[in-house]
Amino acid sequence: MASPFPAPLTSGAPVPVRRARRAWVGALALAAPLPLVLAPPSSAAQKSETIAFDVPAQPLADALTQAARQAGVQILFPHAATRGRNSRALRGRMTPRAAIERLIAGSGLRIVSARPRVVTLGLAPPRTRAAPAAAPARKPVWHSPPPTGPGEADHPVEIVVTGRPMSSPLTAAETSYSVTVIDDARLAANITRPTAELLRLVPGFWIESSGGEAANNVRARGIPTDGFSSVAIEENGLPVQYDGALGFFNTDQSFRVDDTIVRVEAVRGGPSSLFSSNAPAGVVNFISRNGLDHRGGALALTVGPEAYARVDGHAAWQLSANIGATVGGFFRISDGRRNTGFRADEGGQARASLIWRDGGHELMLDVKHIADRVAFYLPVPLGFADDGSVVPIPGFDPLADTLAGPDTNGVAMRSARGTVDFNLDRGTTTRLTSVTAAARIPLGSGWSITSRSRFRRSETQRNALFPTGSPVPAETFLAGLTATARSAFPNTTALALRYAGSGAAFDMAGSGLTLGGNLMTIDLPMREVVTDQRLSGTLRWGGTHQIAAGLTVADYSYGFHRYTSTALLAVEGQARRLDVVALDQAGAVIGRVTDNGFQRYGSLYDDADMRSSALAFYAADEWQVAPEVRIDLGLRWERVRVRGRVAGTIAVDLGDPTTLADDVVTAPSGTVTQVRHHYADAGWSIGASVGLSPRSSLFARYTDSFRLPSSSEFIGNPMRSDQASVPIRMAEAGVKHAGKHLTLSATLFYTRFDRLPFVDRRFDTVTNTYVERTAIAGTGALGAEIEALFRPVEPFDFTLLATLQDSRYRDFQFTELVGGVPITRDYRGNHMVRVPRLNLRAMPALTLAGGRLRVEASLALFGRRYADIANTRELPPYTLLDLAATAQLKSGWSVALRVDNVTNSLGLTEGNPRTGAFEAGDPTSRYFLARPEFGRTLRLTARHRF
User: Fold this and answer.
1) By the 8 A CB rule, do 858 and 865 touch?
2) What backbone phi and psi angles, to 5 degrees, belong to 715?
3) Which of 74, 142, 353, 477 could form a disulfide with 114 if both were Cys (CB 3.0 to 4.6 A apart)?
4) Mean pLDDT, to the nearest integer, of 655-670?
5) How far apart are the first and last CA of the chain?
6) Whole-angstrom Cα distance, residue 767 to residue 487?
7) Other CB atoms within 10 Å distance of the CB of residue 224
8) pLDDT tens-digit profile of 12-31?
9) Is residue 657 within 8 Å of residue 671, measured between CB atoms?
C-alpha cells in the first residue's frame, strides 16, 4: 500500500519524536534527586518488629496521621468521629498496632481491619471500648477479623484521596465537593464494561457508550463539550492523557479497565480543575492494586453471545516486609456488539508493578502495555412513523445491525500518491506502552514530597465507516444526479444502480434506500511525558492547615494523518457498495458517476504533526478551623504552548475519463503552515464543610476555572484565530449523611461557560465535502444530583442515582448569508444537545444466603434530548432494564450472570453530527440517522479468588 502522506520534512527522527525524547530526559532530570533522598533509613525499624514513636499530645486525627507517617502505614478512619477528641502523648518503641490501639483507647474507635500497610478504623459497638493489645505481632503482616458488632463498623469507611492536597484520612461524607467511590466489589461486577459505561455509576455524568469499547462521550453538569474534553481520566493521580480533547483521540482509546484496578474515585466539579489538567467538569481516578496493601489474586473467565470470551486476572504478593509486586491484565475476543460479519474486537492489556515502602518512604514502578483493536459503532438508519414516533427501516435491525460489513472492509481507495487500503476490521487499533514512576519522601514534621512521572508511547489507527446525510430513496437519489451525469456523458438517457464488484442490479425489494458513507482511516502516533512534583504538609495556625503546592509539566507530540473517500451504500445490515452507471438509449454503459462504489475519492485529507507543552502551578489548603468546620482553598495557573506543522491541500484530477469519482481528489499541495500559539490562565476555588453531627455535614463550593485551547483545533484550520481560554464558573452546595440505614449525597449545582467556540461541521452530500461554520456563545446549567444508598432492613438495599438539570445555550445568535440574503440564527435559550433533563438510575438488590447470593436490578430512565442546537430533532425518552446475580461458592469461587437491556429498548443516545451540529438535516425527511443503545447482551462470569 502506498502512503498518501509525504515523507517527513526533516531527516532522521521526526521533530515531535525528538522533542518528546528531550522532554523525557528533562523529566528524568527533575526526578534525579529522588534516589539520593530515598536511600533506605538506617533505623532498626527496617528489620525490627518495633518502631520508635514520638507523637505529642494533640487532636486525635492529627495524632493518627503523624503516627501513620512514623510507622510507614496508612490509617483510614472516620474523621467525624475524632472531632473534639485529643490524644495522649505516645513515646517509645512498640509495634504499629500497639501504638494505634494506645492512641484510640477510650475514643470509641477500634481496628476493624489491618492489611500489611493499611489499617482501617471504625466505630466500636455500643457500650464497647477498643482495648489495647498487649502482645506484639511477630510478623510484619497483620490479620484482623472483620467487625461483628452492629452500627457503622458493618459498613467500610470510604477514604478519599482524589481532588485533595494530601492523602490524610478524609471520608467522602466530609469532603466539600461531590465524589463517588466505586469499590472493588462493584468493579468486579462490571469489569468487562467499557470505561465510559462504567461511569454510568456516577450521578451527574451523562454517558454515551453506544460507540463500543472506546471513543465514547462523557458530559457532566451541563458542560457542553464531548469526548473527554472536560472530564480527566487519571490513573494513580496522573492523567492517562494530558489533553482529552484531541480530535479523534478520546482518552478512553488509551485506557482499559481490568482486574488490576481496585478502586475508582470520581470527583464532579469542585477542586477537579485545581489538581488535574483539562478537568473543569470532573476527574475520574483509577487506583491500582499493589503487593503491600492488596495481597492475593483472582482469575476470571467471561463468556457470552457474539463469540464473546474474556479472561481477567491479577496476582499481588508481598516479596518481603517492604516490597510488593503485582501483575495482571485481560485478553478478549468478540465478533462485536453489532453484526459486522468479521471479528470486531480482539486484544488486551498487561501490567506489572513493584512497590517499596519503609519508614514513610515509598517508591513505585509500573509498566503497562495495551495491544487491542475494537470496533467503533456509528449512527444507523431509522425512520419516522406517521405519528412521528421512531421506527426501524424494513430489513435493518437498529439494535443489532450496522452498516459496516465485509463489503466495506479491505477496500482499495485511490489517492494522488497511490492506493490506500481501507481495513475496517482493524477498527480502533491501539498499541500503547506506558511507564510510571512515583516516590514519596518524608521530610519530617509532617511534611513530604510526592513525585509522579509517566512516559507514554502509542500508535493508534482508527478505521470506521461514518454515514453521511440521510437515507434517500433510490429513485430520488438518481434523479438528483441526472443533470451531472448528462453533463459528463452527453448521450446519457438513464442512470442505473448496480452493486460494486458484481455489477448486479440494485435490489429494490429491500429497503430501496441509499446512503453516503465516509470510509475514514487515521493514523495517530503519540509520545507524551507528564511529571508532577508536590510538596505537602501540616501547619497549625488558627486551626490545622493541610497544605500542598505542586508543579505539573507535560510535553506531548502526536501526528494526525487522515485519508477519507465517500462511498455510496445500500441501506441494509452489512451494507454493500453501489455504483451509478450512465446508460445510452440502447442500455449500454457509457460512463460511471461512481467508481468501485465510491462517489468521491479523497473527500478528506489531513497531514499534521503537533506538539504541546504545558506548565501548571497549583496550591491548596484544607483548613480545619474548628472540629466541625473546614475551609478549602485552592488556585491553579497554567500555560500551554502549541507548535506544529499542517500540510496544505489542493484538489487534483486523477485522470480517469470514464468516472467522476476521481475528478476532485484532495491531495497535498507541497505547502506547509506553521502553527505557533501560547495560552495561559488562572483559576481558583473555595469550599467549606460544616459538620452537623458525626454522620452528617453541609458543604458549599465556588470555582472560577478555565479551559485552554487544544492543539488539535488547528489541524483542519491552522490559521484560525477564534481560540482563547474559555472562562468557566461553577457553584455547588449540598448535604451528606453516612448512617447505618442511609448514605446520602444531595447536591445543587450551577455551571456557566463563556466565549466557547461552537463548530458546525456538516458533510455536504452534493459536493461530498465538509462545510464548516463557527459561532461563539455561552451556556448555563442549573441542576441537582442525588446519590443515595438505603438499607432499611436485611437483606434489602436500594441505590438511587439521579440528575435533574436545565442546560441551555446563552448568547447564541449569529447572522449568515444564505443565497446572498442575510439570515439571523437565534438559538438563545435552546436546550443543550444530547443531555437529558432527567437521568435516573434505580438499583434495588437482595443479599441472601448469608451474603453468598446477591441479586440486583438496574432501571435507568433517560429523558428527552435534542440531536441539534436548533432543537429541531428530538430524541425520545427511553428506559433500560439490566439484571445481575452473583453467587459466592466454596473455595473462593463465584459465578455471576449479567443481562443488559433485558427488554431490547430502542434508546437513541445521539443523532448524526455529520448532518449538522446546528441543524440536524432536513426536518421534513422521513428518514434520519441516530446511534442507539445496544440490544440485549448477556455475560456469564466464573471467578476464582486466591
Assistant:
1) no
2) -70, -45
3) 142
4) 96
5) 49
6) 16
7) 24
8) 333 333 444 444 334 333 33
9) no
Q: How far apart are CA 853 and CA 638, in angstroms?
A: 50
Which neighbouring-strand residues pair with 523? Answer: 461, 561
Q: What is the pLDDT of residues 740-782, one digit of tens each?
A: 899 999 999 999 999 888 888 888 888 888 888 888 999 999 9
Q: Are 425 and 540 in contact (CB under 8 A)?
A: no
The pTM for the full model equals 0.84
Determine what percent of the chain falls in helix, strand and coil, rounding each to the nearest 5: 10, 55, 35
Which amino acid is it at 610?
A: M
Helical (H) or strand (E) element with 20: helix 15-31
- Burial of residue 822 (number of CB atoms within 10 Å: 0-12, 13-18, 19+): exposed
Higher pLDDT, residue 256 or 135: 256
Place of cell 462545510: 771
Q: What is the pLDDT of residues 537-573, one digit of tens each?
A: 999 899 989 999 999 999 999 999 999 999 999 999 9
User: Would you state the pLDDT for residue 126?
Assistant: 54
Residue 171: what pLDDT? 66
Dist. CA 614–CA 605, nearest whole Å: 29
Q: How many whole angstroms separate alpha carbon 13 and alpha carbon 4?
A: 20
- Give the bridge partners for 522, in sequence order: 462, 562
Cα separation, 609 vs 20, in Å, equals: 12
List all residues 6 or more positions away from 772 whose beta carbon is below 8 Å from its beta carbon.
716, 717, 759, 760, 761, 762
Cα-Cα-Cα-Cα torsion 102, 108, 113, 116, nearest 10 degrees, comes to -30
Phi, psi torsion values for 815, nearest 5 degrees: -120, 135
Asked whether 746 and 786 are in contact (CB, 8 A), the reply is yes
pLDDT, tens digit, for every residue of 682-701?
999 999 999 998 889 999 99
**How far apart are alpha carbons 203 and 219 in whole angstroms?**
11
Buried b (16+ CB within 10 A) or exposed e, 181-214: bbeeeebbbbbbbbbbbbbbbbbbbbbbbbbbbb
Residue 846, C-alpha cell as written in the block: 437482595
